[in-house]
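Notebook entry, structure prediction.
Reason for the run: the old model in the group folder had no record of what sequence produced it. Starting over properly, with the input documented here first.
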Amino acid sequence: MLVAACDVELLGRTLRRGKLLFEVHESFYKGSKMKVEEAMNLIRSATIVNIVGSKILKHAVKEGLVHPEAILVISGIPHAQIVKL
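New structure, fully documented this time:
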């Protein structure tokens, strides 16, 4: 199961880091708006996760789902991916 989660204020933004462009497309990230606890439950059960935003990532790190060193910062916005084998 794939879960894509972001802080709501990032929807539609394009993040830049040098030549890297990262688009927070609504077509990929916009789904049901939910509480962080609900999102964490989905993230825990997913096999692939794409997370963008300081709020959601703060919780993922706190719960041990993302290692802080695995976070890429683009335009000051943290991004991480989780792949469970």
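Summary: The first helix runs from residue 26 to 29.
The old model has been moved to the deprecated folder.
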